[in-house]
Amino acid sequence: MASTTNFLIFFLFIITFIFFLFLLCYFVRLKFLCKCEICQCYMTSSWYPQFTNLCDWYTHLLQKSPTRTIHIHVLGNTITANPKNVEYMLKTRFDNFPKGKNFSTILGDFLGRGIFNVDGDLWRFQRKMASLELRRNSIRSFAFEVMNNEIQNRLIPLLANNKDEILDLQDVFRRFSFDSICRFSFGLDPKCLELSLPISQFAISFDLASQLSAKRAMHVSSIVWKIKRFFNIGSERKLKKAIKLINILAQEVIRQRRKLGFSNHKDLLSRFMQGDIVNDTYLRDIVISFLLAGRDTVASASTSLFWILAENPRVAERIREEANEVLGQNQQLTSCEQLRDLHYLQACVYESMRLYPPIQFDSKFCLEDDFLPDGTFVKKGTRVTYHPYAMGRMEELWGVDCLQFKPQRWINKDGVFSQENPYKYPVFQAGVRVCLGKEMALVELKSMTLSFLQRFHVELAHPSHHIPRFSPGLTASFHGGLPVFVREIKSTT
């Protein structure tokens, strides 16, 4: 009896200790979170009406800084929107700015040891494997075949059958990209875009795990989420449950691929399973990495682009006009090579991601004391973040009209799309870690956009010229989705 009483007393003491620890962290966060050593800016309650998104507040601070670099003292985080600093981190001193153990720990339960969560030899090995496969013409042809099939046989019929009802395009794009990446990467079809719109439990759990993993980085100290994980409470309990389901379903993907055989299949997973390392943990991390790269980023970019197109119907009309000029009147794409001559469409996609990048910021960790090119001293162990969202809003980089959507800024005097310095526009990262799936993602995004606009107009269900609100997550997503009306274009023939 005495031992039971002692146990209860000890248990209550632990719970009370955790409660006061949470309170302490909360008040420390309120007082110190937003102290900016370089800008000498402080967040007060007055910033809430002005900024609906944290990324907009960071943009404000970076715009005020002469070097376009700030330091958030309590987070140990140096944030920059300076292209020279970005090039220094991603190219010149790449080895001194890895993802780091802190980042790997935060996302480790979700991403495991996949390519987005590792450094060194393991990262180089996975990148080499992925690079060899993605460069194959057979893979690119297979990817276009999968995407085109998904567009013509599922996406277009779905839109046609919901043309007079409010439709959440963000949800539709997530389903479309989830189907596409699963068919391309794993040779399996979750059928999320069937007309009945079934909800994939895998996709739901994936979204939740992404959001909750990202929230870990928002804690002032990692000890908060680690304590919650240890006692399996709150958000960590939800995260554990979501990851458990993800693991079960990822293992089922692997089992199905083994059952069907992979020697004659074109999908990426089959090609990886023929390699030297084929243990299930490794393959599980590959599955999750493919999904994060091929589903979330494309869905995010698609949602932002169509929000902009709904706000700018003349831009959508110009995309249709260009397609008619290049492909012929109302002709569909038959190969990804045809996209190369659609310069205005390419410019619209790039301009949309300049303002609303799928990955709004990316962090590295400094291994040894260093100085950034703008003179900022970076102490060993400091988190260093470059901010593509803020960089797209810097006047010295994009001009006084930097807040305006202007695709023509990407078109040269000959009417041809012209690339920008990747360190000025690090939407696909740059340097050594530049995105391997960049071209494939662009093909998917442009193919879907063109096929959509050739058949339909899009109108916002709740018109507003305010900037979107974003939900927490590893990729940008609109809070509340993107509710629209889809109107079929009447044929003039």
Automatic annotation (TrEMBL):
Keyword vocabulary terms for this entry: Heme, Iron, Membrane, Metal-binding, Oxidoreductase, Transmembrane, Transmembrane helix
Protein residues bound to heme: C435
Chain segments annotated as transmembrane: 7-29
Cofactor(s) listed: heme
Statement: the UniProt record of this protein carries the keyword Ion transport: no
A single GO molecular function term of this UniProt record: oxidoreductase activity, acting on paired donors, with incorporation or reduction of molecular oxygen
Superkingdom, taxonomy of origin: Eukaryota
One Pfam family named in its UniProt record: p450
Similarity comment: Belongs to the cytochrome P450 family.
UniProt-recorded name of the protein: Cytochrome P450
